[in-house]
UniProtKB/TrEMBL annotation, chain A:
It is a multi-pass membrane protein. The keyword Lipid biosynthesis does not apply. It comes from Longimycelium tulufanense. GO terms for biological process: transmembrane transport. Belongs to the binding-protein-dependent transport system permease family. GO terms for cellular component: plasma membrane. It is found in: Cell membrane; Membrane. The chain crosses the membrane at residues 31-56, 90-113, 125-145, 174-199, 219-237, 249-267, 274-298. Its main location: membrane. This is Sugar ABC transporter permease. Residues 91-297 form the ABC transmembrane type-1 domain. It comes from the Bacteria. SUPFAM superfamilies: MetI-like (SSF161098).
From TrEMBL, chain B:
Belongs to the bacterial solute-binding protein 1 family. Pfam families: SBP_bac_1. SUPFAM superfamilies: Periplasmic binding protein-like II. This is Sugar ABC transporter substrate-binding protein. CDD domains: PBP2_TMBP. It comes from Longimycelium tulufanense. PANTHER family: ABC TRANSPORTER PERIPLASMIC-BINDING PROTEIN YCJN-RELATED, ARABINOSE-BINDING PROTEIN-RELATED. Residues 1-26 form the signal peptide. The keyword S-adenosyl-L-methionine does not apply.
Amino acid sequence: MSIVRTPSAAEEARGRTGRKPSAGKRAERRLAWLLCAPAALVMVAVTGYPIAYSVWLSLQRYDLRFPAQREFVGLQNYVIVLSNQYWWQAFWVTVGLTVVTVAVELVLGMALAMIMHRALVGRGLVRTVTLVPYGIVTVVAAFSWRFAWSPNTGYLAETFAQGEAPLTDRFASLAIIALAEVWKTTPFMALLLMAGLALVPDELLRAAAMDGANAWQRFTKVMIPVMKPAILVALLFRTLDAFRIFDNIFVLTGGAQGTSSVSILTYNNLIRGLNLGIGATMSVLIFLAVAVIAFVFIKVFGTAAPGSDREGRR
Amino acid sequence: MECPARRGRRRGALLGVALLAAPALAACGAQDSGPPTINLYHAPEQNLQTVVDDCNREAAGRYRIVYHKLPRDADGQREQLVRRLAARDTELDVLGLDTTWTAEFAEAGWIREWTGETKAAAARDVLPGPLESARWHGKVYAVTKNTNVQLLWYRSDLVDQPPRTWSEMIQVAQRLAEQGKPSAILITGAQYEGLVVNYNNLVASAGGRIVSEDGTRAVVDDGAVRALRVLKDFATSGVTNPALENHKEDGVRLAFQAGDGAFQINWPFVHPATKAGNPDVFRNMKWARLPGVDPGQPGRATIGGANYAISSYSRHPGEAFEAALCLRNPEHQKFSAVKDGVPPTIESVYDEPEIAEAYPMKETIREELKDAALRPVTPAYQNVSTVLSTLLSPPSAIDPERTAARMRTELQDALESKGVLP
């Protein structure tokens, strides 16, 4: 993937501008800015404005059913949400699901990537088959999981939990949600990791084998270090995605039995409860959480953020 | 919706213009030929289209109703309506509302008040319980379409006489269980509105209140606490179905139909459904009023059903009022009652011979409707329902005093739309 490769064009550009720019270069630069401006303006219109508006909403008491009571309340909504047990329950459910699913996906994704990378015969077929779950719409897949785990009609429920209703039990539900999530997104993880695998030069592996490294040592001492940027990018993408989990839970349990994620809780307050103030507060909090995750990945682990010139700072 | 785009313009400019002028572009899609279209949004009902066709014929070209089906589940219906009304969508005219949404839609200013002649027509000969469900703050905001109440259904081959109270019913069920006969009492116990309805029945039967009459204060009085105790006693008495916490209306119906229970509390649709599903059980299937909480006090039943309201953003309100009245006139209520199993709200319809045939239990329904229980009336009913179903689930874990205390604080927040909804 080009994200990982860190093309040197950007660096060159910076090198050039580091020196004294000539008049022609300056004009070129201004032209570049002008050419970028429309795109930047559209970006501000479609992303900046909604974000700013959400923040503004989150500082108000604003419920569509009581339009007359709309008023500015400062940070009161944040106090309400952050001191609420339902919010923290949903928060920890989300964190738990994120950690478990991303960890499992990483291991399975790595295995799948190896298979796809090493497949000698039917490479195209293997890759296509692997990617099928990722190609199925999440809601459709979630419905088939739900039916599979419904008592009487579902083949999985009949096989593994006869006479029970697994989707009415909290931990069974969470496990099924995690399973559906892993099944769905492992191929995506595998795809990103495969791009990283392509970076590992064959000579390096052969040289290591010559020096007497066994397969496991070649994997941990050669492949993993070379692939590290790719692994971190894959983890970053998946963690950000997993933290916003919504559709699988929505279809499988609807958030009952304490299986709500923060997104489900936001939906319940915003769309069902029509409470724009509280709902916007939750959206902003999710936004902040996602920003923190991205920050930690990029600054602490040194993930190469898409578009940055290097592999971040180590 | 798209106007014929003029060619020869640069794409970027077009995109910018499209972004800014989207609302204006939408306007050129509307065409003003023929009779005004009245868009009816209502839950799927098999034979409602026939009623619509009938009204279109009666309208003789003054308007034309088009029936748009909302999602099947109540939450989905409400979400679609609310989302579009909040965006002031003018394409909605007649709205099929659940009886619990009147206050919410009225308070938000989404539906029109019924006044003068239409108000009088909307109230004519309507049973008092359903009529109340169309009001908010003393004003009329909807016209009743159909009503609904749950009944106690029991097996006459197992039970000689229907129990009058819950404690009596639990005892009978326990005796049946000792004899190794089908004994379960089946109710809708899943974490959703159905559980709230059961609780509301019990509270009303015990003479209690959950929310004050004006819908502003969480009361949860003595009667409401006793109702919690009954629900808890029932859930822990060993006479429930193992799937209690998963049961919604159809699950309850199927379990009873399969012979897995002695009692069920359910809506009248189970009568024709069981007749078709299992004639053996149906032969001994009898009905009675809901059991009460105190001896000598009959149980009270929560009103369900649907009303028609007119959107505030409708461009043809006059025709919409007329259309709504036609869709639920006595003749059409009778038709829907017989064909779609939805009990009428107009009292005289109950005396029609076809109704007697389709509803052998109509007298019991009428009796219950006379002193029926309303669910808490507040614009924030959705919040109230969510909080109640969360706190009541699972019924076996209820701790009457403690649950009541939590209800008081969380319901108060819910009524003021202040807290966080679970």
